[in-house]
Amino acid sequence: MKVQIWNTKKVRNRTILSFVVFFVMMGLAYCFWKWLYAQPEEGGALKPLRKILIQNEKIFKPLVSQEHLVKTYPLQKAEKKVRVNGWDGLETPLDANWKLKVVRKTGDTIFITLDDIKKLPKTDIVFDFKCVEGWNQITHWGGVKFSDFAKYYELDNEIQMEYVGMITPDKGYYVGIDMPSAIHPQTILCYEMNGKVLPLNQGYPLRLIIPVKYGVKHIKRIGSIFFSNTKPPDFWAEEGYDYFLGL
Fold first, then answer.
1. Parent domain of 32
2. DSSP for 140-169?
């Protein structure tokens, strides 16, 4: 009988302790939530969260290397109906006289036609395109390696800088890319999808395919490219997303 009473008291005491711990933790969580949302914003995110994202970038950015390649797949694995990951930058009519604008380190500007780009060695890649919304698709793209493009147009000084920025012609979308990811051997200036001309909704005439990044970095309809030693503006980073967005 004494053993039963002792066990009952033990269960009761543990239950009370559990409830006390639960309510204390709930109180601490509520106080933390109130404190967090009282913090100022920095770069589109609450300052403490932005600091965490910056620290993550410092950890993972050095891991980008020419040897770290994203897994590729046989051509027959590529999806025929490719999803569109956003319309930002595509909502205005395309200028029939489109040319890619490249701003050199010196400030000089060169204008390059799609035919000029197509004269460079072509690269195809079939990889698993990943979106921050949670979906992914194995897709097939073709174009010229950004590193080959930079070499051909003598952008050696430019790719020694820390970042490259890309903007759509209407300035409705823009990304900033760390240079190691930009010159990665799988990063291409893309003008084909599934062996055919890019559709308008996939960024015709030229888009970025950068397999080491999430989809929001794969800017469509590139209008201009520039280089910088400071982080260029980035559409989704300004909305609170991670700037690096590496895979």
1. 1-38
2. EEEEEEHHHHHHHTT-TTGGGSSEEEEE-T
User: Token pair 């770069």 is at which residue?
Assistant: 43
pTM recorded for the entire structure: 0.82
- Count of domains for the chain: 2
Q: Above pLDDT 90, what percent of the chain?
A: 70
Is the bond leading into 180 cis (omega within 30 degrees of zero)?
Answer: no
Q: What is the mean pLDDT of residues 181-189?
A: 98
Same domain, 32 and 59: no
Instruction: Work out the average pLDDT over 153-182.
Output: 97
Among the listed residues 166, 141, 161, the one whose alpha carbon sits nearest the alpha carbon of residue 219: 166
Residue 193 three-state SS: strand
- The stretch 106-127 carries a mean pLDDT of 97
CATH code of the domain covering residue 64: 3.90.420.10
Residue found by looking up tokens 């072509």 in the block: 122
213-230 tens-digit pLDDT:
999 999 999 999 999 999
For the chain, give the number of residues.
Answer: 247
68 vs 135, residue with greater confidence: 135
Identity of residue 87: W
Residues 153, 234, single domain; the answer is yes
In three-state secondary structure terms, 130 is strand
How many whole angstroms separate alpha carbon 132 and alpha carbon 216?
Answer: 7
Token pair belonging to 88:
């930002």
Question: Cβ–Cβ contacts within 10 Å for residue 200, how many?
Answer: 13
Beta strands 100-103 and 224-228, pairing class: parallel
Token couple for 237: 């980073």
Q: CA 137, CA 145: separation in Å to the nearest integer?
A: 21
